[in-house]
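S.,

Sequence below, as promised.
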Amino acid sequence: MNRSDPQAASETSLLQAAQAAIESRDLQRADALYREHIAKTPTDACGLASYGIFCLRTGRAETARYLLHKSNALQPGDIDVLVPLGYAQLEVEDFDAAQSAFESAVAIARDNSQAQYGLGLCLRHRGEWSAAAAAFAVALAGQSGADALPILLNLADACEQAGNREQARMHFVRAQRMAPDHPAVLLAHGKFLRACGEATQAVPLIDRCLQASPDEPVLLLEMARCLRALGDAPQAMRLLARLEQRVPGMPECYEEFGSWLQGPDDGPARDLHWATAIDIRVGKGELDAAEALLDRLLAANPASALGWNSRGILENARHRLDSAEAAYLKAIGYDPRKLNPSANLALLYENTNRIDEAKSIGENVVGYIVPGEQPHAAIELLSALAKVARRQKDYRRAMEILDRIAALGPSPKQRMFVEFERARLQDLLDDAPAAIRSFESGNALAHATWLRMNPGTNKASAGVDYMLDLVGKGWLRQWKPIKTLPDSANLAFLIGFPRSGTTLLNHVLDGHEAIQAMEEKPPVSKMLDAVRNMPNSYPHALADCDALDVEWLRETYFRSAAEHGAPDRSRLILDKFPMHTNLAAMLHRVFPEARFVFALRHPCDVVLSCFMQNFELNNTMANFCTLADTVAMYTRTMDLWQMYRQQLPLEVHTVRYEDVVDDFDHEVRALCDFLGVPWKDELREFDAKALQRGRINTPSYEQVSQPIYRQARYRWERYREQLAPYLPILQPYVERFGYSIDIPAAADRTG
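The prediction came back faster than expected:
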């Protein structure tokens, strides 16, 4: 840098001022100065690294790894960048990227303690214990005092896991000499002693920790485990009861309860505790831990109906539907009077459009329902039978089942199901006023639960309003052109609005050998998070993106896409997510050659269908709980899309749902032409292929398994009276998209 250059001097002074602000603990001012420096010199590797390290130290690991990655891309091979980059990657649990950074740093300076420690942490995560111990040993040689303590504890643990207990013992003793009262040292040493069968020596160490933190869950659990090793059941049970009261639903607590129950008559109670722990872990996404305990349960009791039901739940969570089915059938075989396996299997069959099998399973055990016994499972079983009866057009029986559920004391979620299912039946019976009332009741229950967990302004609605204001002021025209931007992969986004036919199009095209279809997967959300973690955040960071930023965002997208069904960048990726309509500007900025398939349907049908759908609520779907909110979200989304079309050179192909229903071949051929893939006659067989694929994870799973679902066209006409207050608001959109408020005489509304 030319120090005589006034601009260079100014930039240097900003970094110096930021460092001074850090020293005076004015972190807010330091952050502002760093941001000012980056805005003026976005390609200054030194400034990016300095700001990245600051962000890492202030708990913003995602922003730190972006800044440090960019610094390393601009000036590769700087160990002072590679090491903090590795730790930033560790913080966000990107272990592959972290290990790569640390290995690069170690290649430059083998004895660098921080690099070796980070590498050891990565190897530990992979279970490469001997290699991890070697890395920790090198790291320890370069540290002393308090900085050595965490390295020493990790070294001891790695040695133990590698089977070298004598080395581990030596390191634990050294750690305790170094910090005799440190809680982490006492706990780790105590766990080690218990694992070595020396629970008597472990108890005093854990007890010292408990004296300082008497209600700490980890300490209560470890003491209970030590007491189990010593056979002190009364005291252990008191601790576990205290732990359960302190942290309800802690799976380790249920696992420990079950571990005490090893007597000949303890099997049922043990199975119940362990199955509870397994189901909690599955619900939290801790599938490997759930499977480890499940293996213990079934090894102890191979004929456990509870265990096989939990196996089915686990396999279902992993989308292994055949294995889930087999597990549920085993559970039923071992104890047909337990309702949970039959309920779970009936729901699996219904959700995968195996209606006759769902009915058979449900009716085989419905006679076992006894008021007051297995209430949750009984309601789930009846729920499956109610859906089956509706789909088989036995509406009277479906209503009777719903009345039976209502008498069993359903939970709020189950009451919500009853209201939505009753509304669907009333809709099929052409009782529009009653249907609307039931949909309103179901939505009110759903929304009340949502608001308790998510109070305040709806983020999705506020986000659309913000973008409407920003884009309306000409913000898109202020974007800086990005030079030397390489071509992106073959990519298309299937967008529109929920209930506009996107699921139908996705399943039609998913049968094409040249297309990788992703249905509502997280790659775009991951990319959006990456933009939010840039210094200017979303959406403003998009305006100043350079080629390195776009490369970063693309890699973020493609890493996630590879994990969710689209690993081959040479084939067309079709990314279906209706509400990504609101993100079209970002998608175009990162992928300017990407194509957009815009699914369109009569606005009145879209609004009505969204309101009538029992969505799993999130910030977007929470806007569909009243007709007024649904109309507002629809109109604002369409207004924003119109602005995007006017201000950005988007490559768009619009597909009208009604036209696909009327002339499938013509519309799908045109869509294939737009996407650059050849027409295939097999695309007509999408319904059969949808059934072969099993579960369809959208509310349209019933419809797309049928050849062409015509019943939904112009459905709104039957609800004209209920929609009347909103028709003037929707009229401009109806006309813009070439529809009419007056239904054509030839329209097929009955299928």
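The CA atoms of residues 61 and 92 lie 7 Å apart.

Coffee later?
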